[in-house]
Amino acid sequence: MDHKHLSVALNDGHVIPVLGFGTALHSKVPKSKTVEVIKLAINAGFRHFDCAYCYRNEEEVGLAIRSKIEDGTVKREDIFYTSKLWPTFSRPELVQPALKMSLKKLQLDYIDLYLIHFPTPVQPGEDLLPKDEHGKLLCDTVDLCDTWEAMEKCKELGLAKSIGVSNFNRRQLEMILNKPGLKYKPVCNQVESHPYLNQSKLLDFCKSKDIVLVAYSALGTTRDKIWVDQSSPVLLEDPVLCALAKKHQRSPALIALRYQLQRGFVVLANSSSEKRIKENTQVFEFQLTSEDMKILDGLNRNFRYNAANYFAGHPNHPFSDEY
Fold first, then answer.
1. Residue 117 annotated in ligand binding
2. 240 falls within a domain
3. Is 97 left (phi over 0), alpha (psi -120 to 50) or beta?
4. Can you give the residue range of the structural domain that contains 66?
5. Rounded to whole angstroms, how far apart are CA atoms 284 and 5?
6. One of 53, 55, 114, 196 is an active-site residue; which one?
7. Is 4 inside a domain boundary?
8. Quick check: is 192 in a domain?
């Protein structure tokens, strides 16, 4: 897999590989196995790794990357690494320390992309989701434009080459884009997207603003009980997807990934299985027809696996808007 030819330009002049590896592994995957999984992904040809403070595995991901640099498989500049600012660090004075904490865990000098993980500031502290004695989420009153200015500073200091957002709706994106004195606009918005939630309106809006959409949960989801309702439909068992997989003699996962690439998304694949990790890199070996694409468009039902119910009641909850 020659990743050099499989990247797209970001609006700040950097490039991002169009296929990434999501490191939010299922909670059943032990941390000790994370190092092995990331090494397998690098060996399979993945060069783009998507991580976050809240995944609690940046030490392991960093260890795997550094070991593949040390053994000569890759150079640091071959790797595109993304991390994310959790809402407990939304206050401007906490942004830089949060990024430096990730860099320390990774033992890297810079990251390639830093994202505001959710537009939902909550009270600072150790808890990812701080609650009061009645179990109510402790929101924080932070202007996200101030958070964004602190993100811009991280870029200027070279701690992050590019900056962007995640889980922002159109209105929240426009708030950043229309900010007086904006120095750098977000290079991307990372959102849940798959055939059941194709995000076509958000995609059109982001394309018009030269913002790349990055798709997470592109294969549905790992169905981790911590985040996902167990009664939700299994995307990769969808009969339409399976019929197209049969037609192209590919897996349903590859059809789902290819669908997003052809629409102009950067897409993240997530697996801890060596066989599936290798298989997912075959997404560049075939093409879907315009008829196939129309059929897949028809699967959209605006269904979210990650409805972010843990931020229920937050005034900034991004999914209450249409897109």
1. yes
2. no
3. alpha
4. 15-229+264-272+302-313
5. 11
6. 55
7. no
8. yes
